[in-house]
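Reader question, answered in our methods column.
A reader sent in the components of a multi-part assembly and asked whether the whole thing could be modeled at once rather than chain by chain. We filled in our standard form and ran it. Here is what they sent:
COMPLEX SIZE: two components
ENTRIES:
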Amino acid sequence: MGLLILMALNCFCVMFLNKKDQTVAVVNCFGMWSAFSLMYWGGSGVSRESLSELFCVDIYSSSMISLSLWICGISILVSSCMINLRGVFNTYLVLVTLLCFLLVQCFMVNTLAMFYVLFESTLIPLASIIGIWGGQIERIPSIQYMAAYTVGGSFPLLLIFTTMEVHAGSSFMWFISMKTSLNWLFWGGCFLGFLIKLPAFPFHSWLPKAHVQAPVGGSVILAGILLKLGGYGITRMMMLFSYTLESFGILVMSFSIVGSVYGAFMCLRQSDIKKLIAYSSVSHMAFSIMGLFSCTEVGMVGAYIMLVSHGFISPGLFVLSGINSEMVHSRKIKVMSDGVRAAPSLGFFWLVMIMANLGVPPCPVIISEVLSVVCVIALYPWVFVLLLMYFILSGAYSFSLYCQLTRTKKKIKMKVFFNEVTLKDMSALYFLFYPLAEVLFKWDLWAMM
Amino acid sequence: MQMLSMIVFLVMSLMASIAMLFMSSIFWVWVMTDVGTLFLIPFLSAETRPKKSWFTGVATYFVVQFFGSVMILGGIILDWAIQATDCSSAMMCFGFALKLGMVPLHFWVSRSFVYFHYGGIFIVGAGQKVFVVACVPLFSDVPLCAYAYYLMAVGSMIYGPIAMFNAIAVKSFLAYSSVTHTGFLVIGSFFGLHIVYAYSFIYCVSMAFLVFMLWSGDCKFMKNLGSELPGYYKTGFVCIAMSFSGFPPFLDFCTKFVIIQLSMEQNSTITITAVLTSSLINLIVWVWVLFIVTSSEVKEPGFLSGTTGQNVLNMSCIIWNLFMGAGFSMLY
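And here is the structure of the entire assembly that came back:
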């Protein structure tokens, strides 16, 4: 509650600042709120700092809260550098702050009913961001896709918490129900909305459309935190209904394994950088799903490492693609190489982010992938063949991407709009590296004691 | 003078409709319904520049309402004379469904609405229907008629938003929106009159805001909504659109949630499925409308740029859609 009050008061104060100072003020506020949210990291179990009638925070929610605040700040920082953010920038600040406010509450609330309301409410600011600052006319169908998938997929969840309210009188999430024989239809209803949000194969088709149409800041938020709502929701539902390894979970894991290979294969085929990063997200989220549905502590740790790491790496890729595509006014990878040649420092950053995305040590993604693979192989060893295919394909698309971006074929005239990248442009990227290092050293944070 | 006559006839129609709510006999309900409809005819006919089109709309409306009334009266007489309950209930069910414009008897709604003025659309599409729904006997003696009435309501809820997608004219869009909400009202009537009254109030106020904003811009075609709708009302319209989309925490989500809750208590799976299906299609339709409205090449005044009255109306609309949902949930 203290964090929410602090956020509201800060926003109220920022309203009275000069419009030119508001951007810097809001970014600083996000930094401060992120620091404040670290108070909730009290280890596993419920944090004493945030116990109240409405809210309750444990390590899973507190890590998501810190991620939300950090990513929303990054989104504002990167958008303030973009020249293609037309219109009144203050509207963007308001929408991102509102979205962050909804997300923080979403990760804090006690009841499934409020969680559902906030889960759906996060669609509104994001749809507005895509609608106002999206580049093309196709943004309308992409928003319809996203809204229909998310809202339609979570209708079963609406029915579930309504049933809880009607029959039990409350949808309090911290009750742990006795394990009873619940069929796969019930589990499907519980998890469908969150699997679509993650997004899990085969419900992933909305994500590339949304990413392509969204501005850079919107893609940062979507990839950085909104997809993680799905993972968090799955965790809460599992805790609430005492989910153990079931046939439904094995089916989901099977789809995820196929999805990871499919996502990596689709990345190889992409010429649009944003679609490539979107399909890469589908592949990585598959590992989170595998970890979560394996119902092991190792799997849970692996899943959350992936969720948090991906929350920093994917936005980093989008930041780089935003800067690079602004230089050449195109999202085609082959055209973007002109920008990399004009500003060679970009090539270095691309290398670092591609390696982080691939899971090259010391990036924490490798820890997550290893832990998730261990969980899945424990169930059925021959799955390793498919996972091996994934590792080969992900290496191939990462290598292909880097080669295309940094090809040295000489051209007479380089078509770039500006040929230097300043510290201000890259500041968003620097702020993404630090938390990755933190995750690397604190990777066992989500292990239950 | 014309405005005065419109108000007079409207008030008389309203009085007849209120009187209808207190009638205990179905015959007097029929009488008051018809009296209300008759007084609406001059109201609907009032046009500052009379042209053939108003006659077409009012004539269509009058003929359909007359035919529906004949069916209801026929049913009442049959029941009184020879106690043929099945036949009389079937005739009354048909008559009420026709008057309400429920699927598949909704053919007249769009044809009439296209020729009405916006005041007429609000009164016929929201005001009148609310009173009629509250007075319909639910045919509990004849389960077949009750099921038919219920299924027509379900059909209206699902068909309405699909037809809204294909609407070219704004008034046609409002017509099918009215069909959808009539379905919701009738479904609500199966759970109790208190739901009908609550939902009616909410629906009428929301439609009043919507219709007033569209009237102020003299909006004709859906594709031109972005340029025709006044800039100072756009924020309010966006809130209405988000509410009708079914996004929480807006008002319409809360009302649908209450219906779902009641359906769950009574294990009414068909209602739950229908409400959810209708909500999903509504979401897609209103997202489409939202983007038509917010995409405008014309540079126009923005939020709080109108007169005091216009700004008050705009703010009221925003507050109504954003906060009344929570208020309604707490009250209920």
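What stands out: The mean pLDDT of chain A is 83. Residues 297-328 of chain A form the longest helix (32 residues).
Send us your own complexes using the same form.
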